[in-house]
Amino acid sequence: xxxxxxxxxxxxxxxxxxxxxxxxxxxxxxxxxxxxxxxxxxxxxxxxxxxxxxxxxxxxxxxxxxxxxxxxxxxxxxxxxxxxxxxxxxxxxxxxxxxxxxxxxxxxxxxxxxxxxxxxxxxxxxxxxxxxxxxxxxxxxxxxxxxxxxxxxxx
Length: 155
Known about the structure:
The chain is 36% helix and 17% strand. The radius of gyration is 15 Å and the shape is globular. It is built from 5 helices and 5 strands.
């Protein structure tokens, strides 16, 4: 990624410097990773590696690949955590850079913290060490799913 494709004051652009231990995958367009401030175990961010705002800011290649990356990362998070539900949310209001928050919702999350209310767990269940500890398992599953799905695309 060139420096010109990032904004210096953008939190999501600054994540290009994230250590590999927090990263599930990086390809030329996308990164899936644990993000500081959203480091609840089972939460990952899928972010565009260049600065673009809203889904309308994606080019055709980014848009086409977003669905595959989201599918594979949601699948990996779900399988690695055993979560009965995994949410994919796109807001972009606090951090105007296209990204999706993927949140595993385990069986122990009370009903008043499900659906959109799961975001309340950001402060209640933050555990950077436990969140980072899930990265290797999610990475292994992601690699398997992405490889298997790539084979189906080329067939």
